[in-house]
Amino acid sequence: MYEKKEKKSVETGNGLTSLAELGEFGLIERLTRNVKRYHPETLKGIGDDAAVIDAGNKVILLSTDLLVEGIHFDLTYMPFKHLGYKAAVVNISDIAAMNGVPKQMTVSIAVSSRFSAEALDELYAGVVMACDKYKVDLVGGDTSSNIKGLMISVSIMGEAKKEEVIYRSGARPGDLLCVTGDLGSAYIGLLILEREKSVFQVDPNMQPELSGFDYQIGRQLRPEARTDIRNLLIGTGIRPTSMIDISDGLASEILHICKQSGVGCKLFEEKIPMDEYTRELAKEYKIIPSVAALSGGEDYELLFTVKQEDYDKIKDIAGITIIGHMTATTEGKFMITPDGKAIPLTAQGWDGMKGR
Ligand code: ADP
Ligand code: MG
Fold first, then answer.
1. Are 254 and 307 in a shared domain?
2. Which of 102, 147, 239, 266: CA 20 to 30 A from 231?
3. Same domain, yes or no, for 220 and 336?
4. For the chain, how big is the Rg over CA atoms in Å?
5. What residues make up the domain containing 158?
């Protein structure tokens, strides 16, 4: 988990490589270039939502996420309980993205003396609430002091049968590109919270005006993981060819599937499912609504591909939308606008949207 904000670190000016230049994925590739694999049980290491480890008649799924104060959350508007809940959910979501069942997690925290035990009680109440809801056992962790701020790192284990696991790499040209739920609301929720925060900072006596935005703010502060999709797909007999969760924005997640699968794609802008009020709010913020979905992130919906022959099975399932299809890699990665323009998909959808 990496926030775009971090990329702002500037040129080092001393011949060393700046992180800004590398970007998140460049950095991960660089750091892990000498990593060897010693155990044949390690079926999948770096590069998917979770590692996949052979455990005989099943596989273990393993994933971890780090949340850092000031980067991933702002305690001005993020209640501790929500933060604990979200820290657990973003990990559970990675297991859902592999088509697995979440089972155990560890939670590690680093806290400065600025925090009270009561505040951390609330944080853990949130973690436990998520564990209860998703039936995950909290089995350990680590606790450390910190010079400044709060960090939470959650690691999660899940299970699946080997043949059930869905990787990012299985998409083929012609496959339909599908998404669960709706997108962009978590980002609009963040904008609303940021706006009210600046009002609050100018005049501390002002009460933030958050009523009416429950859906958007809820999506930002208290996301859910789509663990229900596994059973829904089993029930309909559809087996996705690839899958990923949407933590960083639709565009970047589509590009991950394209890269790992060696395919291109055509995404149809008007098909992107969005809450109607979120669309309106996006326009108020002078954002093209689809950009909130393409670049916003944190919706924690699932993005997946299915074989074209599954079209009849998938087309009428409530809460699943077909938004495009995969193509040969030579055909590129494009979003088609309602008036038929093809815009190259970029990880920061903003760039691609310039000049529209
Ligand atoms: P996600 O968005 O699903 O949480 P990330 O984008 O954070 O996944 O990570 C992509 C892949 O890189 C994952 O397989 C993750 O385990 C791996 N990864 C991320 N950071 C590191 C790191 N510092 N060292 C080794 N592997 C990493
Ligand atoms: Mg993920």
1. yes
2. 266
3. yes
4. 20
5. 41-164
Q: Specify the number of domains making up the chain.
A: 3
69 with 216, same domain? no
- Residue 322 and residue 198 in one domain: yes
**Ligand 1 mutation pick, 3, 24, 27, 28, max ligand atoms within 8 A of CB:** 28
- Name beta bridge partners: 265: 326, 333
159 class by beta-carbon count within 10 Å (0-12 exposed, 13-18 middle, 19+ buried): middle
Q: What is the CB neighbour count within 10 angstroms for residue 142?
A: 10
- Please indicate, yes or no, whether residues 191 and 151 belong to a single structural domain of this protein: no
159 phi and psi angles, rounded to 5 deg: -135, 155
User: What confidence tens digit (pLDDT) does each residue in 297-337 have?
Assistant: 999 999 999 999 999 999 999 999 999 999 999 999 999 99
Q: Is 94 in the pocket of ligand 1 (CB under 6 A)?
A: yes
Q: What are the pLDDT digits (tens) for 182-223?
A: 999 999 999 999 998 887 777 767 666 778 999 999 999 999
Query: Is the Cα dihedral 192, 195, 200, 206 positive or negative?
Result: negative
* In a domain? residue 124: yes
Q: Kindly report the pTM of this predicted structure.
A: 0.93
CB 136 within 8 A of CB 156: yes
Same domain for 142 and 114?
Answer: yes
The CATH code of the domain that includes 201 is 3.90.650.10
Find tokens 């996420």 and name the residue.
Answer: 65
CA distances from 229 to 55, 97, 337, 356 (A): 24, 9, 29, 35
CB 1 near ligand 1, within 6 Å: yes
From first CA to last CA, the distance across the chain in angstroms is 30
